[in-house]
Each structure stands twice: as structure tokens, then as C-alpha cells.
Amino acid sequence: MTTSLWPSFLPPSAHGDDARCMVGARGVRLRFADGSSALCGTSGLWNANLGYGNKAIAKAVASAMDDASYLGTFRWENAPIREAADRLCAVAGGDWFTRVLFSTSGGAANDLVMKLARQHHALRGQAQRQLVVGLRGGYHGLTFGAFALTSDEMGQQQYGVDRRLVRHVEPNDIGQLQRLLERFGHQVAAVVVEPVLGTGAVELTPEWVAELVRQRDQHGFLLVADEVATGFGRVGDFFASQAWPGEPDLLVTSKALTNGTCAAAAVLVASHVWETFREQDAVLGHAETQAGTAVTGAAINAMLDEMAKHDAVMAGRLVSERLDHHLAQLMSDEESVVSFRGRGCFRAVAMVDCDGVPLTGDGVSELVTQVRRAGAVVHPGPSGFQLVPALLYTEAETEELFDRVRDGIARARRAVRAVA
Ligand SMILES: Cc1ncc(COP(=O)(O)O)c(C=O)c1O
Question: How high is the pLDDT of residue 93?
């Protein structure tokens, strides 16, 4: 179909496909413009943790639209977002976080974090602390600051992304972290890590995280947990960093923050960081017109109510147990499935082709397409696919998801044979 839409991350040859054009969604099911429907195994883009069409969130957003259609946070405050800020600090646990800054996307929030960390140190007389360290394989968004921190080669050079103040280390390599910080520790403003790397669902080991926390305490950089994907029960705790041996100084959230209903992100700020700004009455040079609106605040408050009502963290743990069982079964039944990684409702499955070679680009695309034809949406992974189901998936839905994945794997195998 001819359309003026330029969708992200799709080659022009794939534009205008009705099988990719969604017209509606409810629960964990998507409806498409070609009349088909599919079980969603990705919670949207990992953001509809409670499933689609949550009535309470819809009602709260509609009511705020009526009564507070645009009330922002750029030189102003509004009541719903004040409430959301207080509640986010409370659910993150105790009095460690005492301020919340709002943004409109994970990428923009990571930009904000880089500015905040550098200004924090400058206010403390350490303006030389400008470096920001991320992880190889880490993803933090595609705005210019976050793009520099995102490690995968995605065209940074061609787009003129300035990476001079960014360094990357291998996840879980303690020696590499120590060596970098021994040399540059006094210049590092922040180390930003995803507790579970979204690309490939790579978990950080407890030993590596403990060392990172120790290095933070020794060198004084800000430790940032990018929980854009892992927050709100996605990997077994309310926030994944709650299981760390030390709290992060900044915690970045987005995606499930409004259950995917608004363009929203929130950065939780530890009290000692906030104190640096408060003591000097310093203004942070970051603001966005649409950040922290009353509508967003209403969505966040309703999302938190719904998480509590459905005991979503516990529900997600139950789904996680089912995933463990089904993934083990899939691996024992399917020769092409060689391993799986991740935890909670955030999993990656690694596969090989008929020659035993790990799947890459075209093989992964073919697989995801065939699973879609079999009636489910799964996320492409580095050498296979990723499953990021809603925390409220039922046992029947989990079984159906795996049936469709199996069917998709069989279809992909037949398609490859037909070409050979
Ligand atoms: C950990 C993490 N950080 C940042 C981002 C970027 O978020 P956005 O696409 O909202 O800019 C993502 C998106 O997937 C993410 O997973």
C-alpha cells in the first residue's frame, strides 16, 4: 500500500506492508491492517508490561486530557506529576532517591543523565570529570548523547556522533573495568549500565556488579542504572538494581513507566546528587516541552496502582518460571535451539542454522517473519529471537506462544530448504 509514513528501522522496500501495520491491540493480542491477528510476545517494544488496553490507565489518561490537557514541568510544576515523582521514589525503596526528573524517551533521558553527571562533578569542583563509561553491547538510545553511549556500530561515525568523551568496557570483565578506572577513574563522571543488557538479554554477574559498586565508592563517579527496559517487574524485582549490593546514584526508567501509553521517561536522583544542586541553587540545562505533563503523571500513577492491584512483580515471576520450563523443553526438542539467556520476562534464545552456524541477519529476519506468519510477534535477537511477554501472561497464553514459535521455526526450516 502507498503511504507517507516513514517507519523507523525498516528499509524502504518493507514500507507500506499491511501485515506490519497494526490497527488495534487488547490484552496480549495485536490486530493488523491485513485482517490478521497475532499473539504479542514482546509487550509492544518491551513497554506494555500489563498488556494492551488497560482500562484504569486509559480512564486516568482520558480524565487528565479533559481536565489538564497540557500542564508541563518546564519552569512550572503540575500536581499529577508531583504525585508520580513521590510515588516513584517510594517504590524504588526508602529515602535513597529524593528527586525525579522527567523526559520523553529513554534516549533523551540518557542525554539528561550525561549532562547531570558532568554538572554534578563541576559543581563539586571536579570539572575534569567528563568521561562517561558504558558497556560493549549496551543500548541507550539514538539521540546524539545516548547514541555515543550505545556501543553497537549503528552508523555513529556517518552521523557525526562525538564519542571522544565516551569509553566502553566488556560486560562482566572485572580486569578491564579495573584497568580503565585505575587509569581514568579521576576523569570519569558516570558509568551507565543496563542490569540486563537488552540486546541478547545478557545478565551482569553479581561479582562484576559488586566490583562496579566498589569502584564507584573508591573513585566517586556516578553509578547509573539504565532500567529503561528492566524496570517495573520486567526481570523479577520492581527495579533490577534493587538486587545490587549498592544503590545506583541515578536510575533511568521509561518504556513500562506508563505501560507504553505516553512518550515518557523518568530519572530518579539519589539525595546526595540532588544536594549538590540544591546547595548551590543550580539549574540543570535540560528541559523538554512534553516531559512530565499532567497526562503523563496520570498515566504513571494509574500504572503504579495497576501494578499493585495485579501484584505484577509476583505475576511476572510466575510467567518467568513458565518460561524456564518451556524454554528448556524447546531446547531439548529443537536441534536448532542451542541456548537461552536472561531472566524474568526478558529472554533471548540463540539458534543455529542447518550447518550448525549461529543465525545472523537474514536468518534472524526469516525466523521472526515465519513466527509472525505462525501467529506470534517475537523480537529479533543477536542470533535468534527474544521473548519479552507481558507480566500477566496466562499459562494458556504461554503455551500458545511456544506453539507458535515452534511452528515458526518449522516454517523457517522449510523456507530455507525450499531455497536450497
Ligand atoms: C536500556 C535502554 N536504554 C535506552 C533505550 C532508548 O529508549 P528510547 O527508544 O525510548 O529512546 C532503550 C530502548 O530500547 C533501552 O532498552
Answer: 85
- Over residues 157-181, mean pLDDT: 98
Q: Which atom of ligand 1 is nearest to the CA of 265?
A: 10
C-alpha cell at 247: 544503590
Q: Please, what sign has the CA dihedral across residues 294, 296, 300, 305?
A: positive
Report whether residue 377 contacts ligand 1, using a CB cutoff of 6 Å. Answer: no
Atom of ligand 1 minimally distant from the CA of 46: 14
| DSSP bridge partners of 265 | 103
The per-residue pLDDT for range 352-387, each reduced to its tens digit, is 998 999 999 999 999 999 999 999 999 999 999 999
The type of residue at 14 is A
Ligand 1 centre distance from Cα of residue 346 (Å): 14
Please identify which residue in the block is written with the cell numbers 535513597: 96
Specify whether the CB–CB gap between 269 and 97 falls below 8 A.
Answer: yes
| Longest CA span, the chain | 69
Alpha-carbon span 98 to 228, nearest angstrom: 19
Find out whether the beta carbon of 326 lies less than 6 Å from any atom of ligand 1: no
Q: Which pLDDT score is estimated for 415?
A: 87
| Crossing angle (nearest 10°) for helices 312-333 and 395-419 | 40
- Angle value at C-alpha 58, between 57 and 60, nearest 5 degrees: 65
- Per-residue pLDDT tens over the stretch 311-321: 999 999 999 99
Task: Label residue 77 by pLDDT band (50, 70, 90).
Answer: very high
Residue 84 phi, psi (nearest 5): -60, -40
Centre of ligand 1 to C-alpha 149, Å, is 11
The residue behind cell 518449522 is 410
Please indicate whether residue 191, judged by its CB atom, sits closer than 6 Å to ligand 1. Answer: no
CA pair distance 253, 52, nearest whole angstrom: 19
